[in-house]
Amino acid sequence: MNMEFIEALHELEKGRGISAEILFEAIEAALISAYKKNFGSLQNVRVLIDRLTGEFKVYARKTVVEIVEDTRTQVGLEDARKLDPNYQLEDIVEYEVTPRDFGRIAAQTAKQVVVQRIREAERGMIYDEYVNREGDIVTGVVQRYEQKNVIVDLGKVEAVLPAQEQIPGEVYQSFERIKTYVVEVKKTTKGPQIMLSRTHPGLIKRLFELEVPEIHDGIVEIKGVSREAGARSKIAVYSRDPNVDPVGACVGPKGARVQTIVTELKGEKIDIVNYSTDPQEFVANALSPAKVVGVYPKINEKVAIVVVPDYQLSLAIGKEGQNARLAAKLTGWKIDIKSESQASTLNIIPQGIEEGYETYNEYEEYSEYDEFIEADNYQEYQENGQDIDNGHTLLNEENAVGEINQADDEKYAYNNNEAYDADFSISEDTQKVTEGVLERAPREIVKDLKADEKISVKEKKKKGKG
């Protein structure tokens, strides 16, 4: 060995990141094996390589004993003290036994060892890099198909995307860049084996961390993810800052952030809901986009009865129960969805507040607006000079319209009967109320009344001609 070899080892250290000391130790261990193999020596030896000059020497190691039984591994105490008077029993004495023609063998062995160690070191470095990225997202390039598995190039190593971890119906083109989730990293004799996934719920979480700065900064937190890959996913988000809307932060301006994720997942639908420590509110939010009338949870059994409007029942359940299934996974509650008519028929809604039940109604938070609506109605009728007494005016107006319609029908019927020649009239009270109704009636009602009046005039003219 010479200085060029030493310089080459230091270049490998800089270029490949492999410590030169590790290479020196590996070469020394290989030279020990080569010495014993080529020179048939059974004695203990040690090889020392000078880190500066590259020169190497072989030393035989013998143990100091009183009575020598094996000269290859033992030396007498008197002989040892001839070399150094400080030797004691059980000490190790080294003798230089470097062969003259050992240089060629050493060079061949050193080359093989260095190449092997470089490979092992690179594999070890790749393993150490990716074993710490388990549960993280990586970007790779699709290389090829091997049976149903997809081989993805991550740069330094190729990873495997198994068939069961692929999104159903998704087709991967060669040299297409895709984002995947690192499920597992195994250490094998051929190097690290990295298993990827496109169906893992963690992929959704990591994609949102990449796209939403508020999640990356810790202001918004993803509390839970439930997913049916390729179809729909639900995530529950929570904001530590009351001034930050977690759902709006994830959706982004004009839906730009969530649309980027949907595009990456080839059109998979994503529902973003608010997380709540209150199970009733959380269950109601998780069933989004369906509207919930009431939630009646059984705390001890962790079962929630959810009542929805009749027209929202199919939306709450979802296609093949998908929406309800994802909501149950997200909340950890067993959800029983009933329509309002079913709930009233089966009498499954607890009456009052029973033990173990709590109620939630999403419309309760809007009850304050009912007062403003009632005040607006009162002001409207006051402007028209009418008094409101528990809705009696409205009832009287409806009765008056009904009386007019009935009178027109009867008058038309009686006019067709020649035997009937009586006068027909409407009471003065009804007439006054009617005038008020007509003044404020919609255009459609006015048109209908005028049309009926024209028909009556035409019928009278026909009878006059007859």
UniProtKB/TrEMBL annotation:
A GO MF label: RNA binding
Keywords assigned: Cytoplasm, RNA-binding, Transcription, Transcription antitermination, Transcription regulation, Transcription termination
Domain of life: Bacteria
Signal peptide annotation: none
One of the GO biological process terms: transcription antitermination
Subcellular location: Cytoplasm
Chain's role: Participates in both transcription termination and antitermination.
Subunit structure: Monomer. Binds directly to the core enzyme of the DNA-dependent RNA polymerase and to nascent RNA.
Name the UniProt record assigns to this protein: Transcription termination/antitermination protein NusA
Protein source organism: Desulfosporosinus fructosivorans
